[in-house]
From TrEMBL:
SMART domains: HTH_XRE (SM00530)
Pfam families: HTH_31, MLTR_LBD
Domain HTH cro/C1-type: 37-84
Protein name, as recorded: Predicted transcriptional regulators
Species annotation: Zymobacter palmae
Top-level taxon in the UniProt lineage: Bacteria
Xref: SUPFAM superfamilies: lambda repressor-like DNA-binding domains (SSF47413)
InterPro entries: Cro/C1-type_HTH, Lambda_DNA-bd_dom_sf, MLTR_LBD
Molecular functions (GO terms): DNA binding
Amino acid sequence: MHPDNLKWVGDFLRAKRESISPEAVGLSRPARTRTTGLRREDVADLSGISTVWYSKIERGQAAGISAQAFASISSALRLTKSERKYLHNLIFPQTRTYKAPCQTTSAHTLQLLTQLNPLPALLANDYLDIVAYNDAFQLMIGFDLNDLPAEAQNYLHLTITHPQWKRFACIDSEETLALRITRMAGFLRDTLAKRPNDDVLKQRICAFKAQSPLFHTAWSTNTVLQPEEVTYTYRHAQLGIMALDKQLWWHTNGNASSRLNVYYPQHDADFQRLQQLVSPNADQASAQP
């Protein structure tokens, strides 16, 4: 196992252990302890392994973690599906080539985005860069992303820095901002486990940590998430508050990969309003020049 992976496994397990109260797993809280959450010996006992061995895993000194130990620890710490997959990717890395994050868009993809009008849609890569989008999405956010520098056309960067984007995303409090940033930190951590040798991704993460104290804190919690289909309330720049279901479609083109986000209104009336707004403008999709 790569030394970085050993460290990430240990960091993740420690953060997860400290987030679980003894009562949550049927244990009594010790009378005298400075440990937040479970102790190492608690996890070891619940997993059926020795405390010495589990401690070595948390310190990043255990290169030979078995599938049985992985399964036992995952159960003891009540890992989610995303967390199990993340840990599995770190402990049992597979020798396979991942497609590079998409940076450009083909004519066929732009045509697809155009045909999705009046549904807002965007194409994003593993770095959370917004590679392309359609007229409906531009009308929804209220500004043209192509007016921004290339490095600013990034979902996380916009969430951290751009007031108009925050308004569109209904980020109206520090708590909401922290939740959104934590979700994206979880996505990037999951991506890093799949692409441990991606130096560009590592540089992006370091830059986000320097740029945003909230991201730095979110990264340190070792949250792991995979992109998922969710419902959010957005503030359309012209139509106001609207509940939209986000559906995800994975797209590959040659040696590159990306994710297509399509936003569906929950209510027929909102779809009609989108249709009336977009129809005069639905001539083309936008991509990075």
